[in-house]
Predict the 3D structure of the following.
Amino acid sequence: MHAAEPVPLPPMAAPFPSQRTGPLAVVPRILVKATEGGRSSLVEGLRDQGMAVLVVPRNGLLQQVESGAVDLVLLHTDATSALEELRALRELSSVPVVVALREVRTPLERYLEAGADDCVMSGVTRCELAARVRAVLRRRARPVTGELLRAGPFVMDLARHVFLQDDQLIHLPPKEFGLLELLIRRDGRVVGREEALDLVWGPGHSGDPTTVDVHVKRLRGKVEADPSRPVRLLTVRGLGYRFQA
């Protein structure tokens, strides 16, 4: 049996083409894994917001992502399936992922810590979900090609999402990468937990500030010689964290 070929995204016509005089607007390409498939009201809401939505065939999520034809993945499934698929995605790709859980009440921290760029529960409105998707796409937009951050033994290649310490490649999930980038850019100034949530996880994020503590702890385990006695990622008691080169 031959492996299924990735399903190509349908061409999207720009609205009111006769009235356009400048370049065509970029239409975000969203790959959706939803229990109801294309019948999901949230999926319809994304289409109404002008996004190109492709509902992934059963068991075809990773193959579609590997094709490189999507800008963001939306997982709109139950809690267990969403976590399994998120972890599988993060083994393969750094593509932006938004998790929209079908459960009304469930802890969101494990999805964010597993690499989701944003996570919401059942009851989120179409407009809010579309706004969150757009916010994730803005935050994850590729920076200027070749932009590097250098600090002591650290090098961050922002365009390729690569982190080196003493010329050794260290894998960082998206949130850890974003948090470290923020701390390095502050050049020794303190970054508060709420501020980090706002800038790395996105405005209006409902996560607990201790989520930042968890990510700092994980970063220390990767970049500090002795994580119990950090010399790079320092705690400023009562305020937050700062980076020391």
About this structure: Helices lie at 41-48, 61-66, 79-92, 109-113, 126-139, 174-185, 193-201, 210-223. The chain has two domains: 17-139, 148-243.
